[in-house]
Design goal:
Elements lengths: L5 H16 L19 H19 L2 H40 L12 H5 L1 H10 L9 H21 L4 H15 L4 E2 L4 E2 L4 H14 L4 H8 L1 H20 L25 H14 L3 H7 L1 H12 L1 H22 L3 H31 L6
Helix pairs in contact: 1-2, 1-13, 1-14, 2-6, 2-8, 3-6, 3-14, 6-8, 7-8, 10-11, 12-13, 13-15, 14-15
Length: about 375
C-alpha cells in the first residue's frame, strides 16, 4: 500500500468534489471550487491520470518492459470499460426503481435515461458502444478513450519525448479550429467530454510529471509560480462571480479558442486549471502537518480511485433521488453529504482490506 502522497490526496479531493457536484442544486455544491473559477475537478482528475501514467512509462525499461506496460494499459482500459457498463446498469436500475417506488414516471427521463426506456434496443447498443451516455456518467468514457490511447502516447514518448507535447497541442488546435468531436447515437449529438480536446489535459499531466523546462522552472521558483497562479485565479474568480461571459457573436473565429467551454476544455479553462496547479502544488505538505487525518483520508480515497469513483457516481444519483423524495432541505443535503463521504471512505477502506487479505494469502517465494 502506498504511503499518503500528493497525487493520491488531490485525486481523493477530486473524487469528493465530483460526488458533490453531480447532485444538481445541492446546498454544499456552491462551496466547491468550480463556483470560483473556470475549471473544476474534471480537469484535476484527468491531469492526475496523465501524471500517474508518466510514472509507469518511465519505469518501463527495454522492449520487455515496454511490452508489459502496453499490455497493462490495455488491460486497464478494459477494466475501466467494464466499470462503466456496471455503473450504467446500476444507475438505470436506480432510476427505474425510483420511478416505480415513488410513482413518478418523469424520473425515467432523468440524466439522459429516456431513450433507454422509450426505445431500448438502439439505446442499449449505444450504451455498449459508449455512444449513448447517461448524464453525470460521462467522464469515465473519456477516461476509457484516453487510457486506450495511452499505449500510443507511451510509444511516442519512448521514441521521441520532445514530440509528445507539440503533437498533443497540434491535435487540440485542429479540434478547436474545426469543432471536431465524437458523435452520440442513437440520440443525435456529441460527447460531453470531447476526448480529442481533453487529451491535452491528460498529456500535460504526463509531461509535467517528468523533467521538462517548465516543470524544472516551476520547482525552482515555487514562490513566483504561486504568485502568478494566484493572480490568474483572482481574475478567474471575478469573471465567474460577475458572470462576465464573452459574447459568442462578437468573438473572432475560431470562437472555441475564446469561449469558456467544458466540452472542448477551451484555453481560458485550461489556463485557469494550470493556475490552480501552480498555486496549490505542494500544499499537501501543509495538509500532512496541520490536518494529518484529512491527508490520510484523501490519500486513501485516491489510492482506490476507480472503486471510489464508481460508488460515488451511484451515491450522487441516490442523492438526487433522495432530494426529490424528501425535498430540497439543508438538513437533507447535510445527511446526504455525511452519508456519502462515509460510504466513500468505507469503500476505499474495504478495497484496501481486500488487497491486504489477498496479499497475505499469497504463498511466500521460495
Amino acid at each position: 500500500m502506498r504511503q499518503p502522497n500528493e497525487v493520491d490526496f488531490w485525486r481523493g479531493f477530486a473524487l469528493v468534489s465530483i460526488f458533490i457536484n453531480h447532485i444538481p442544486g445541492f446546498f454544499f455544491e456552491r462551496f466547491t471550487h468550480r463556483n470560483f473559477g473556470l475549471s473544476d475537478s474534471a480537469e484535476l482528475f484527468v491531469f492526475l491520470a496523465g501524471w500517474s501514467l508518466r510514472r509507469l512509462v518511465d519505469a518501463a525499461e527495454g522492449p520487455v518492459g515496454l511490452g508489459r506496460l502496453l499490455l497493462t494499459l490495455g488491460a486497464r482500459g478494459v477494466k475501466l470499460y467494464a466499470a462503466q457498463i456496471l455503473i450504467t446498469v446500476a444507475a438505470l436500475g436506480v432510476v427505474a426503481a425510483s420511478a416505480v417506488l415513488l410513482e413518478a414516471p418523469p424520473l425515467l427521463e432523468w440524466n439522459n435515461a429516456a431513450p433507454v426506456f422509450a426505445d431500448p434496443v438502439p439505446a442499449h447498443i449505444g450504451l455498449v458502444l459508449l455512444t449513448h451516455q447517461l448524464g453525470f456518467f460521462d467522464i469515465l468514457p473519456l477516461y476509457i478513450v484516453l487510457m486506450l490511447g495511452s499505449p500510443a502516447l507511451a510509444i511516442v514518448h519512448k521514441a521521441s519525448p520532445t514530440l509528445v507535447l507539440p503533437l498533443s497541442v497540434a491535435i487540440y488546435a485542429v479540434v478547436l479550429s474545426f469543432g471536431l468531436n465524437l458523435p452520440t447515437w442513437p440520440a443525435e449529438g456529441t460527447w460531453y467530454f470531447n476526448p480529442f480536446a481533453w487529451q491535452l489535459v491528460f498529456v500535460l499531466g504526463f509531461w509535467l510529471a517528468g523533467r521538462s523546462w517548465l516543470g524544472d522552472w516551476a520547482r525552482r521558483h515555487a514562490m513566483a509560480r504561486r504568485a502568478v497562479g494566484a493572480v490568474v485565479l483572482a481574475v478567474g474568480a471575478v469573471v465567474v462571480l460577475r458572470e462576465l461571459q464573452p459574447d459568442p457573436m462578437i468573438l473572432p473565429q475560431p470562437r472555441l479558442f475564446f469561449l469558456f467551454d467544458k466540452t472542448f476544455v477551451t484555453p481560458p479553462r485550461l489556463l485557469h486549471f494550470l493556475a490552480v496547479v501552480a498555486t496549490f502544488a505542494g500544499a499537501f505538505i501543509l495538509a500532512q502537518r496541520y490536518a494529518p487525518a484529512l491527508a490520510r483520508f484523501g490519500s486513501m480515497l485516491g489510492r482506490n480511485s476507480l472503486n471510489v469513483f464508481c460508488v460515488g457516481s451511484i451515491l450522487s444519483l441516490l442523492g438526487q433521488v433522495a432530494r426529490f423524495a424528501l425535498g430540497n432541505d439543508k438538513m437533507v443535503d447535510l445527511a446526504i453529504l455525511v452519508v456519502g463521504v462515509v460510504v466513500l471512505g468505507f469503500t476505499a477502506w474495504l478495497s484496501e482490506l481486500r488487497e491486504r487479505l489477498r496479499s497475505d494469502g499469497r504463498p511466500s517465494p521460495a
